[in-house]
């Protein structure tokens, strides 16, 4: 298979610097509102904060690919004496929890690194994190070329797993029969 260069964008997270202010959640949801900045709702943010002040746990996690089924094996992590719950580090919208799902439709949310035209120098959450807990990095990697699933495919897959494939097919058939 042919090799291609791919730019990989990463947000490195320094949990020791996060104070749980939630500015990242606010700006992410505002930046992705339609129209832009018309509202903010952390439930629509593509970065979520695991926040447990009593245990001194402040863990920002940004959304990755969604998972159609919940995983079977889960792990607990103890880092610097702090115990993190089984799903804390997971970046997926999955059937077992509400994180990274659009609250009205239930569709999965995924970080798009604030893609915009013209491009931003740094993603919005990184710009708004005054404590430097979020560090933006870019690097180039060689990858095998393969077609990435379209965003619409990802959305349809999520709807099909929620409502059943037949219901989605019926709805599309009804819509295409409308004048
Ligand atoms: S903006 Fe920075 S310090 Fe505030 S919650 Fe997000 S990651 Fe933590
Ligand atoms: S990079 Fe942009 S889309 Fe991703 S979590 Fe941060 S603000 Fe949201």
Question: TL;DR?
Answer:
The chain has 179 residues and is α+β, with helices and mostly antiparallel strands.
Enumerate the spans where pLDDT stays under 50 for 5 or more consecutive residues: none
Percent of residues in helices comes to 10-25%
Helix-strand makeup class: alpha+beta
Order of helices and strands: EHEEEEHEHH
Count helical runs. Answer: 4
Distance between the termini: 45 Å
Number of strands: 6
Q: What is the overall pLDDT average?
A: 90
Main beta-sheet annotation: 2 strands, antiparallel
Radius of gyration: 18 Å
Side-by-side strand order of the widest sheet: 1-6
Small molecules bound in the structure, each named once: iron/sulfur cluster
Report the portion of residues in β strands.
Answer: 15-25%
Task: Please explain how this structure is put together.
By secondary structure, the protein is of the alpha+beta class. 22% of the residues lie in helices and 22% in strands. The chain has four helices and six strands. The chain has a two-stranded antiparallel ribbon with strand order 1-6. Strands 2-3 form a two-stranded antiparallel sheet. The chain has a two-stranded antiparallel sheet with strand order 4-5. It is globular. The model has no long low-confidence stretch (mean pLDDT 90). Bound molecules: iron/sulfur cluster (2 copies). One iron/sulfur cluster binds next to helix 1 and helix 2.
